[in-house]
Design a protein that fits this description.
With 656 residues, the chain is mainly α. 67% of the residues lie in helices and 5% in strands.
Length: 656
């Protein structure tokens, strides 16, 4: 019995020897494979990368790395997939750093041999790009310094952007100016783009615009990025028509070097003009065009921010709150824009605050059409929103930090805060710090005359919060005299404040004029500011019409007035199973009409009254935009038909 175990023990070394020999024989071909060239699987992976089939490349790389965790080709492919396909920059960075260390460990620092050097160059170039997109500027410069120390041609031109974002302007300008003299068009474009971006970041808008126009002229307007950035520079010097021309030009530019579309710029322009049809079309076109997977973390939420603002201006406050909250939860990276993360968070928080307070106004408006019992839940929700807005306001105050940040935000178009949000920004910051910022702007800005009406508008809003009605009216009048006609939304804000002040001061003619202007262009402003419209309410025969009229007298949007000089009139008319409520001007022009049908299907009289009043509020105090009566051209030249609500639903539908 003892012999069998001894036989088994004796056999083990022989088996092990045989297996070792087999393993050695099978390992020889793999050991002979150059890891920088790869075996058949790795070469197939490289071919897949060349075809830009990155999902398939991910599968191949995972399979290779499971068998050979130190595969250089497999790891590089995975880094490229994380960077370009999945937008997972931290994981891309991890694999690139592992590759960098592996190449130096195997082949020296710097690597020796043409193949090792070629791979190391690729790794450093992608490492620099990933660090830039992550806005890690010092590390990006370090990667570029390592590249330039060992490889040619040097990538000095890529240092402009990180140097600029670190406010090392003189170094950045020197490199950019040198790049503009290159024989290579792409390098010249990069140089010009750097120069104009430096001046914009230095808050020198006039100089920036001059440099930008020189750049687009020198390149015959062929570069998308130069056209688009020059459009932004045109905003800062109040050249709105030029901004539109250049933004449209960038879409058609033959050199497609833009990381994102110019449609958000156009949406901004059309929105400030209260051209809601084209604003909707621009946002829809931008969402249709989309953003590459690699750049979604850089631009996707910025596009959603513009949609947030569009919803806000159209009176869709609830949807605006939901979307602005999403933007704040998942903000874009700022690697490919010149603004800081903190600045963009501040602006997005201002958007959220504005949407919260406006939604609160809307809920109180709805509550005023209901019985006390039914109004309670709406009052409670409005109170909750006000508490949330208070918390958001404190957050903005913390984000602002230095007064210079507030000053830059209050200077129109120096930062990406819409001009019609200036009053909200001032409200959040508070009167004292805002007035100090305005005083500095009046003293130091290079375009004092052009910015003055904007500053007057801000001061009018501050005076309103302090109850100084005569000052509000005086400041508003001065602002409206000089504000550009393009500034329809900002003018709407100021006209709403002027109308309220004039009414309180007994200046009926002035009040009628300003209310008429607001109702004609952007009645949402009355909702946002909680301004009540003085009206006479008349109802035709019928019990329900009279109940609606009585309930409307308590509306938070209306102020019943017997003053015939004002002349605004609400006419309530029963039409069988429907009710029509119209808001008319002093001259008899109809601003808006709501028609509520199938009233008998509602369970009781109170429900019918509430439905009629809600429909009226929604029609009378939201912009009147109906594309069924007029074709407009979308930005790709195709005709767009249908109601604005339908277009907006199309845009929102893609966001679900």
């Amino acid at each position: 019995m003892m012999s069998r175990p001894s036989i088994r023990v004796a056999l083990l070394p022989a088996c092990a020897l045989t297996l070792a020999a087999v393993a050695l024989w099978t390992a020889r071909p793999e050991a002979a494979v150059d890891p920088l060239v790869g075996d058949a699987e790795e070469r197939a992976l490289l071919a897949t990368l060349d075809k830009e089939k990155l999902i398939r490349a991910r599968e191949q790389a995972d399979k290779i790395l499971r068998k050979r965790p130190r595969s250089i080709i497999g790891r590089y492919a995975l880094a490229q997939v994380f960077h370009e396909e999945e937008g997972n920059l931290p994981r891309a960075l991890y694999h690139l750093r592992q590759l960098d260390a592996q190449l130096m460990s195997l082949y020296g620092d710097p690597p020796k041999g043409s193949k090792a050097r070629s791979w190391h160059r690729k790794v450093l170039i992608r490492l620099e790009a990933v660090l830039g997109e992550m806005d890690r500027r010092k590390e990006q410069l370090a990667a570029l310094a390592r590249y330039d120390a060992h490889y040619e041609p040097k990538l000095e031109r890529l240092k402009v952007w990180p140097l600029m974002k670190l406010h090392r302007f003189d170094e950045a300008r020197k490199i950019a100016e040198k790049a503009t003299l290159s024989e290579n068009l792409n390098i010249r474009i990069a140089g010009y783009n750097g120069l104009l971006s430096i001046e914009f970041e230095r808050e020198k808008p006039e100089r920036c615009f001059r440099v930008a126009m020189r750049a687009v002229n020198a390149t015959a307007e062929r570069s998308c990025i130069l056209d688009m950035n020059t459009a932004e520079a045109a905003f800062a010097v109040f050249r709105f028509s030029e901004a539109e021309r250049l933004a449209l030009k960038s879409i058609q530019a033959p050199i497609k070097d833009c990381p994102s579309s110019a449609h958000p710029y156009l949406a901004n322009l059309y929105l400030l003009r209260a051209d809601f049809q084209r604003a909707i079309a621009a946002v829809k076109q931008a969402r249709k065009q989309g953003v590459s997977r690699r750049l979604r973390q850089q631009f996707e939420m910025g596009l959603n921010a513009w949609l947030t603002r569009l919803l806000y201006t159209l009176g869709r406050f609830k949807e605006s709150v939901k979307l602005s909250k999403r933007v704040l939860r998942r903000p874009d990276r700022v690697g490919m824009i010149s603004y800081s993360k903190e600045l963009m968070e501040t602006i997005y928080t201002v958007d959220h605050y504005g949407a919260l307070t406006a939604w609160g106004q809307r809920l109180r408006e709805q509550a005023s059409a209901r019985s006390a019992l039914d109004a309670l839940p709406l009052w409670a929700r409005a109170q909750k929103l006000e508490i949330s807005a208070w918390a958001v306001r404190r957050k903005v105050a913390r984000l602002l930090g230095q007064e210079r940040t507030l000053r830059s935000l209050l200077r129109p178009y120096l930062k990406p805060l819409p001009s019609w949000q200036l009053l909200t920004m001032a409200e959040i910051a508070g009167a004292g710090v805002t007035r100090r910022a305005l005083a500095v702007l009046r003293h130091s800005d290079e375009m004092k005359a052009q910015i003055e009406p904007y500053l007057l508008a801000i001061e009018a809003s501050l005076a309103r919060r302090e109850g100084a009605r005569r000052e509000v009216l005086a400041l508003a009048r001065r602002a409206l005299t000089s504000l550009p006609k393009d500034e329809a939304l900002l003018r709407g804000h100021v006209q709403a404040l002027a109308a309220e002040a004039a009414l309180a001061l007994g200046e009926a003619k002035a009040a009628r004029h300003y209310f008429d202007r607001v109702l004609h262009r952007w009645p949402t402003a009355l909702r946002i500011h909680g301004v009540r419209l003085p009206v006479r309410i008349e109802a035709t025969k019928g019990a329900l019409a009279k109940v609606v009229a009585e309930r409307l007298r308590g509306s938070r949007r209306l102020l019943t007035s017997a003053d015939k000089q004002l002349g605004f009139k609400v006419l309530i008319e029963a039409r069988g199973d429907a009710m029509r409520v119209c808001l008319n001007s002093p001259q008899g022009r109809r601003y808006a009409c709501s028609v509520t049908e199938k009233l008998k299907k509602l369970e009781d009289e109170d429900a019918r009254v509430v439905k009629v009043i809600d429909d009226f509020h929604e029609k009378a105090f939201a912009p009147l935009i109906d594309l069924t009566q007029q074709d407009i051209n979308s930005l790709d030249g195709s005709a767009v038909r249908g109601s604005a609500d339908q277009l907006l639903e199309d845009v929102l539908g893609k966001d679900k």
